[in-house]
Design goal:
- The protein is of the alpha/beta class and 513 residues long.
- Helices cover 21% and strands 16% of the residues.
- The strands form 4 sheets. The chain has a 10-stranded mixed beta sheet, sandwiched between helices.
- Strand 8 (225-226) and strand 9 form a beta hairpin.
- Helix 5 (248-262) runs parallel beside helix 6 (295-316).
- The chain is globular, with a radius of gyration of 22 Å.
- The structure holds 2-acetamido-2-deoxy-6-O-sulfo-beta-D-galactopyranose (NG6) and calcium ion.
C-alpha cells in the first residue's frame, strides 16, 4: 500500500498529533471528509481581485475569503484558455496530450468517458459531485440533437448532477442544460444549432441586423442575436428555453444552493463554473454602473457578490466550517474579446494581470498566473500569503490525498499532490511546472522558459494584433529570470545555454510520456 500522507492519516484518525488527538479532535472517528467547492471564474486576471491590487471596483467577499484563508501568488491555470484548462483540471493530465483547444459550441465531449476524472475519483470516496455553470468541454458524440437526451456529458464523466451553459455565454445554444435535457424546451419548437450556416429563419443575426445589437461585435461574434447580443454560431427554435444573461448569477447560485442542500448530509464536490467575467459582459440592474471601470468592473463586483450568495447558502446549511473553498480563474485577463463594451477605454490605471505581462491566450505569466484563494475554517489558519507554485492540474492528486483515495497507475498522470501547500502547512509546491498556451512554457523555480514556435509554423499573433495582449511567442528560444524580471522583458537565453538545454529536455521528456 502506498503510504498515505500524514495529513490524510490524521483526518482518518489513524495518526495522533502531539496532544494525542487527531486533527478532527476525535481519534477513530469516521473520516470527516470536507466538502469541496471550486469557484472557477472565467477570464479573471491575477490583479482583478481586491487583495491583489484591483482598482476601480471592489471584491469584499473574495477579500474576506483571503483574510480567513490563504492567498496564493504563484498558482496557475493549466492553460491560457478555457477548454484546455478545464480539461486538465478535471483529468489531471496536460491538455497538449489531448491536443485540447477552445471548442465550438457544437463540439463532441472532449473527455473520454472511460477516462478516470476528478469527480469520478471523489465519487469513489463517497462524495456527491455537481457542476453548475459554464461547461465548454463539448457534449454528445458528434451531432447533438438538442431536443432529445444530450449525452455523453458531465453525468457520463463522474458528475451526479449538472446545470450548464453548454458552451460559453458568447456561443449558441443560448439555453440551460440540466442533466441531459434543455430546460423549458417546447417540443413543438425544436432547437437546432449550426456553426456553419443558418439552420432556419427564426433569429436575426448581427450581420443582417446590426441595429438590433446592444453591443457592437466582431465578425466571429456577429451571428445569432439573443437578448440583444450577437453570438458565435447559428441557432433556430427553442425560444421558450432561451436564457437571459442578466439572470445567470441568481440562477446559478440557486442551483448551487439546491445541490448543496440536497447533499448536506454527505461530503460533496461542487464545481461552480462562472460565466462572469467572460464576454458578453452584462451586469444585472444590481451591478450596472457600480464600478468605476464600466461593465468589466461591474461584472467583477457581480461575480464577487455571487460568491457571497453561495457562501451564504453554505453558512445557512451549517457547512462552512468543514468546506474547503477554492476561488480561482480558468485563464488570464482579456479586455477586448469580441464585443465593444468599453472595457479598454474605461480601464484607467487598473492592471488586470498585476505586474505580469500578457493575458488570456498568452505564453507569458499573465496567461496562466491567476488569483487563487483556499479557505477552510476548520483546518486552514487565515491571513496567510503563500508563494508555493502549483497548477489546477494538481487539484486531482491533492484532493485524492485529502479524501484518502489512492491514485492508480495511468490515472491523472501529470497531477502532483500539493495538499500541504494547498492547506498552508507548507510553502512548498512544485519545483517544475508546465504552463500551456499556443506553445509550452516551463517554470523551474523563478526561471521561465518558453519553447520556440517551430520554424515551419506561423507564430500565433492574433492576441498581439487584435486584443492588445503580448503573446510572448517567438521562433527564438526565450528564457526569463522572474526573480528580477517578473514582467518577462529581457530574454537571457544566450547567457544561460545550460539552463535552456535542461528545460527543453524536461519539456521533451513530458512530451514523450
Ligand atoms: C474565442 C472567442 C472569444 C472567446 C474565446 C473562448 C475570439 C475572436 N473569439 O474564439 O471571444 O469566446 O474563444 O474563451 O477570440 S474561453 O475563455 O472560453 O477560452
Ligand atoms: Ca476563460
Amino acid at each position: 500500500m502506498k503510504i498515505k500522507s500524514i495529513y490524510a492519516l490524521a483526518l482518518m484518525g489513524m495518526f495522533s498529533c502531539s496532544k494525542g488527538t487527531s486533527l478532527d479532535g476525535q481519534a477513530n472517528k469516521k473520516v470527516d471528509k470536507p466538502n469541496i467547492i471550486v469557484f472557477y471564474v472565467d477570464d479573471l486576471g491575477y490583479g482583478d481581485v481586491g487583495v491583489n491590487g484591483l482598482k476601480g471596483a471592489t471584491t469584499p467577499v473574495i477579500d474576506n475569503l483571503a483574510q480567513g484563508g490563504i492567498n496564493f501568488t504563484d498558482v496557475h491555470s493549466p492553460h491560457a484558455t478555457c477548454t484546455p484548462s478545464r480539461y486538465a483540471m478535471l483529468t489531471g493530465e496536460y491538455a497538449f496530450r489531448k491536443k485540447a483547444q477552445i471548442l465550438p459550441g457544437d463540439a463532441p465531449l472532449l473527455i473520454d468517458t472511460n477516462k478516470k476524472t476528478l469527480p469520478d475519483m471523489l465519487k469513489d470516496a463517497g462524495y456527491a459531485t455537481g457542476v453548475v455553470g459554464k461547461w465548454h468541454l463539448g457534449l454528445g458524440n458528434g451531432s447533438v440533437n438538442w431536443n432529445e437526451a444530450v449525452k455523453p456529458g458531465p453525468l457520463e464523466i463522474g458528475f451526479d448532477y449538472s446545470f450548464l451553459l453548454p458552451a460559453t455565454g458568447d456561443r449558441v445554444p443560448a439555453v440551460y442544460l440540466e442533466n441531459h435535457h434543455v430546460v423549458n424546451l417546447d417540443k413543438n419548437d425544436p432547437l437546432v444549432v449550426n456553426y456553419k450556416k443558418k439552420p432556419g429563419n427564426t433569429y436575426p443575426t448581427g450581420e443582417e441586423n446590426p441595429e438590433l445589437r446592444r453591443q457592437p461585435a466582431d465578425k466571429q461574434h456577429n451571428k445569432t442575436i439573443i437578448n440583444g447580443i450577437s453570438r458565435i454560431g447559428y441557432m433556430s427554435g427553442g425560444e421558450k428555453a432561451i436564457w437571459k444573461d442578466e439572470e445567470f448569477p441568481d440562477v446559478l447560485a440557486g442551483k448551487a444552493n439546491e445541490f448543496m442542500t440536497k447533499h448536506k448530509d454527505q461530503p460533496f464536490f461542487l464545481y461552480f463554473a462562472f460565466h462572469d467575467i467572460h464576454v458578453p459582459r452584462l451586469p444585472n440592474n444590481d451591478w450596472k454602473g457600480k464600478s468605476e471601470m464600466g461593465v468589466r468592473g461591474d461584472v467583477i463586483m457581480q461575480m464577487d457578490h455571487t460568491v457571497g450568495m453561495v457562501m451564504e447558502s453554505l453558512k445557512k446549511l451549517g457547512l462552512e466550517e468543514n468546506t474547503l473553498v477554492i476561488f480561482t480563474s480558468d485563464n488570464g485577463p482579456v479586455l477586448n474579446d469580441g464585443y465593444d463594451d468599453k472595457a479598454v477605454e474605461l480601464l484607467n490605471d487598473h492592471k488586470p494581470a498585476g505586474i505580469y505581462s500578457g493575458g488570456k491566450y498568452s505564453a507569458l505569466e499573465g496567461g496562466t498566473r491567476v488569483p487563487m484563494i483556499a479557505y477552510w475554517p476548520k483546518h486552514i489558519k487565515g491571513g496567510k500569503t503563500s508563494d508555493a507554485m502549483f497548477s489546477h492540474l494538481d487539484f486531482y492528486a491533492s484532493f485524492a490525498d485529502l479524501a484518502g483515495v489512492e491514485i492508480k497507475k495511468g490515472e491523472a498522470i501529470d497531477s502532483k499532490d500539493v495538499l500541504s501547500a494547498l492547506i498552508g502547512t507548507s510553502d512548498e509546491g512544485r519545483k517544475m511546472m508546465l504552463e500551456e498556451s499556443y506553445t509550452l512554457s516551463l517554470r523551474n523555480g523563478d526561471w521561465k522558459y518558453i519553447e520556440p514556435i517551430a520554424k515551419n509554423k506561423r507564430i500565433p499573433d492574433f492576441m498581439d494584433k487584435n486584443k492588445g495582449i503580448k503573446g510572448g511567442m517567438s521562433k527564438k528560444v526565450q528564457l526569463f529570470d522572474l526573480s528580477n524580471d517578473p514582467a518577462e522583458t529581457t530574454n537571457v537565453a544566450n547567457k544561460h545555454p545550460e539552463m535552456v538545454k535542461m528545460m527543453q529536455a524536461h519539456i521533451d521528456s513530458l512530451k514523450s510520456v
